[in-house]
């Protein structure tokens, strides 16, 4: 079976205190990295990576074999359509310690729903690919269904990128391929299914991602992941339903399901989500 990696989006959320992290946790990154295979860096969507911070993250996880990160491209690139020389330089320089340590696997470009398949947007993807594909596996999160026509899929395949598989609230125009089949190193991103908040412009971030997948829903995702991995070299699964640590609970449940064994669970998380007792490795 190809390698499957189980990870989370971010690790530093105030609402995780008391849910994921107890008061005696000295370093949050080191702690949570002991339970997952990778972490998706979300902060780079809002501000370019700083080499000092990146080096610290690499150092703090250096004793965990095969642990890795993925990072989101800045919103200026994906949401505003701007690729400045300065931003390109900031990403290359800022993430250099992670690249040198072979700890950066994917660079994620997450686009808005209205980023459809038209000549201008295709050209923009080509420019992103030209400027960033030397850093890591460029992975595209496309949310408009015009990208799933055969012509568009052929174009995407020609870029030698990965097109992310998504689980998220959908509209009639949403990208909804269950297995994109583009990129040998597949990426499956789970945002939760809180449709009411997702499409409410007044809803805050926490409300939008306040969703816990049920065992039945996770069973369906497990089957989907098994289909994806059959056609892939690797599969990275990232949960992004981060509010109050729900993404950690769900990724550990998926890990147990797909690997067919019990897994380590943070003690505080176990208190908040008792359904995790079924998958927890006994401490004895």
Overview of this protein structure:
It is a single chain. With 284 residues, this protein is of the alpha/beta class. 36% of the residues lie in helices and 16% in strands. It has 12 helices and 9 strands. It has helices spanning 28-33, 51-60, 75-78, 85-94, 96-100, 119-132, 150-158, 195-198, 205-208, 215-230, 246-259, 267-272; strands at residues 3-9, 38-41, 68-72, 104-110, 137-141, 162-163, 165-167, 185-190, 234-239. Strands 6-5-4-3-2-1-9-8-7 form a 9-stranded parallel β-sheet. Helix 10 crosses helix 11 (246-259). The longest helix has 16 residues, at 215-230. The radius of gyration is 18 Å and the shape is globular.
List the helices and strands and how they pair.
Elements (H helix, E strand, L loop, with lengths): L2 E7 L18 H6 L4 E4 L9 H10 L7 E5 L2 H4 L6 H10 L1 H5 L3 E7 L8 H14 L4 E5 L8 H9 L3 E2 L1 E3 L17 E6 L4 H4 L6 H4 L6 H16 L3 E6 L6 H14 L7 H6 L12
Parallel strand pairs: 1-2, 1-9, 2-3, 3-4, 4-5, 5-6, 7-8, 8-9
Helix pairs in contact: 10-11
């Amino acid at each position: 079976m190809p390698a499957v990696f189980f990870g989370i989006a971010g690790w530093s959320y105030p609402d995780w205190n008391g849910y994921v992290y107890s008061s005696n946790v000295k370093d949050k990154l080191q702690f949570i990295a002991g339970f997952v295979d990778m972490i998706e860096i979300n902060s780079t969507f809002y501000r370019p990576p700083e080499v000092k911070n990146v080096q610290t993250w690499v150092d703090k996880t250096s004793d965990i074999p095969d642990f890795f990160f993925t990072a989101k491209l800045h919103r200026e690139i994906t949401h505003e359509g701007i690729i400045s020389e300065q931003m390109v330089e900031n990403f290359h320089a800022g993430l250099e310690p992670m690249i040198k340590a072979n700890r950066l696997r994917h660079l994620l470009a997450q686009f808005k729903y209205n980023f459809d398949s038209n000549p201008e947007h295709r050209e923009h993807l080509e420019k992103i690919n030209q400027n960033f594909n030397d850093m890591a596996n460029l992975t595209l999160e496309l949310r408009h269904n015009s990208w799933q026509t055969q012509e568009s899929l052929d174009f995407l395949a020609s870029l030698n990128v990965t097109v992310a598989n998504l689980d998220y609230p959908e509209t009639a125009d949403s990208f909804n391929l269950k297995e994109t089949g583009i990129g040998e190193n597949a990426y499956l991103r789970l945002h939760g299914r809180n449709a009411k908040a997702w499409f409410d412009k007044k809803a805050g971030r926490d409300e939008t991602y306040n969703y816990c997948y049920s065992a039945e829903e996770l069973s369906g995702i497990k089957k989907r992941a098994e289909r994806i991995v059959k056609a892939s070299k690797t599969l990275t699964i990232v949960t992004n339903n981060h509010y109050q640590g729900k993404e950690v609970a769900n990724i550990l449940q998926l890990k147990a399901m797909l690997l067919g064994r019990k897994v380590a669970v943070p003690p505080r998380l176990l208190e908040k989500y008792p359904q995790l007792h079924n998958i927890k490795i006994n401490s004895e």
